Amino acid sequence: MKEIKNCLKDLIVFQNLDPEELEMLCENSYAKLYEKDEVIFFENDSVKKLYFLVKGKVKLSMLSAAGKEKVLTILQEGDIFGELSLFDEDPHPLTAEVMSDARLLIIPWNEMERMIIERPSLAIKIIEALSKKTRLLTSQVRELVFQDAAGRLASLLSRLADDFGREIELGTVIDLVLTHQEIANLIGSSRVTVTKLINRFIDEGMIIIKKRKIIIKDFESLGERLQTLL
């Protein structure tokens, strides 16, 4: 009973699920802790599980044939992932790696399938949660097609501010430490280009950097970068 109560407390981040659905998830899942830089699953793994991110941050990425990493998105508390390998026999198309110590609730597919059959409304709510990721990926495709590197960086910073932003005296700090290479992987550019753009954004007064975290000072000017087309 204590484990169920702790699980329900964890799942409070999933606000669109009702108490009965939360309890059902708790009864059929197990919790697991992951440390920073630990891999949850690799691209081409065939494990069929659904993951609920209760605490921490996880990045989803893929590798090119030449071994170059492309980061698709960074997940935060309340996100669901692992769904891409659930509904067919294909392996995971992405690698999931922990960026900060994380706590996950994990549901094997056979348990998830049984719950969906018993309570179809649960499937609808999970699909609603997953649609956020689909919209994000669609937005990234649009950025790659229609925006230059400066526009893609501005879009990324705006998105990270929405997901991980915290208001402080100097502006909105993105509560996430990313290297220039990680940012480059997220926007489909080179590390050198990202370094130059960040320095330009700093010179133009749009952002500052304190303790390795980016602080957005001028959202209006940042927004103007989004209009820069190829």
TrEMBL record:
InterPro entries (alphabetical): cNMP-bd_dom, cNMP-bd_dom_sf, Env_Response_Regulators, HTH_CRP, RmlC-like_jellyroll, WH-like_DNA-bd_sf, WH_DNA-bd_sf
Coiled-coil ranges (or none): none
Q: Where is the HTH crp-type domain?
A: 147-220
Keyword check for Transcription regulation, yes or no: yes
Recite the UniProt keywords alphabetically.
DNA-binding, Transcription, Transcription regulation
SUPFAM superfamilies per the record? cAMP-binding domain-like, Winged helix' DNA-binding domain
Cyclic nucleotide-binding domain segment(s): 13-133
This protein is called: Transcriptional regulator, Crp/Fnr family
